Amino acid sequence: MIHNDVLRRLRYALAINDTATISIFKLVNYDMELDYLHAVMKREEEVGYLPCRDKIIALFLDGLIIKNRGRQEGQAPQDLGPKERLSNNEVLRKIRIAMSYKDEDMIEVLQLAGFRISKSELSALFRKPDHRNYKPAGDQVVRNLLQGMVKKYRPESTRKASDKAPKSASTFDTKPSSLNKGDNRQKEAKLKTTPKSTSAKVSPVKKDDAGSVWGKLSKK
Fold first, then answer.
1. Are residues 36 and 81 in the same domain?
2. What residues have CB less than 8 Å from 41, skipping those under 6 apart?
3. 198-209 CB burial, b ≥16 within 10 A, e <16
4. DSSP track, 63-84
5. d(CA 74, CA 28)
6. Residue 115: helix, strand or coil by DSSP?
């Protein structure tokens, strides 16, 4: 999976702003420049986009581990070499450690995104590459884990679709019918519900987006 997407979606799921992101990099002795951070947060089609290198996403995940679980003596993070790559399996492993997820937690978060996986299938993703039961993790697993984390930690961001239902219902209810055509009081009462429904639909989403650094999660 493209590391830019991993960084962007993970930041969104955990509501990590620029200041917090830079402080996470400092935990692994890396001075992240704000301009570069903004560049790797862009999408490929956007002006100023730069690819997020394997070393950068690895440092961020290692810093997140230290932030959430503390620094362990004698276990300093190892920087990736110029030609070393961070696999999807390693991304999953680092997220799992940072979030203190057990097998059941991983399965539950994946299910929130509609992705089902058995415990044995999950275990195969965390085997060493030379193990006979090792399985490489596809982009779909990482993408669904991040999407599940959004639904777990930021459930308000998923309300937009469900909030469309009240608006549709109020529109239908205010339509005149042969049964209440002559009842002016009923018409006035139902018409008053329309602006309230619209307000209920918009307000929670705007409030959440205002507090989010990167706005709505990409559907990609």
1. yes
2. 4, 7, 8, 11, 214
3. eeebeeebeebe
4. HHHHHHH-PPTT-PPPPPPTT-
5. 14
6. coil
How many distinct structural domains can be found in the chain?
2
| Residue 178 structural domain | 160-209
- Judgement on whether residues 125 and 198 belong to the same structural domain of the protein: no
Q: Are residues 23 and 116 in the same domain?
A: yes
The answer to whether position 189 is within a domain reads yes
pLDDT in tens, the chain (220 residues): 999 999 999 999 999 999 999 999 999 999 999 999 999 999 999 999 999 999 999 999 999 999 999 988 766 667 787 788 999 999 999 999 999 999 999 999 999 999 999 999 999 999 999 999 999 999 999 999 999 999 999 998 766 645 655 544 433 343 444 434 444 555 454 444 444 444 444 334 334 444 444 334 444 4
Terminal C-alpha separation, the chain: 11
What whole-number distance in Å separates Cα of residue 189 and Cα of residue 167? 16
- Give pTM, 2 decimals: 0.72
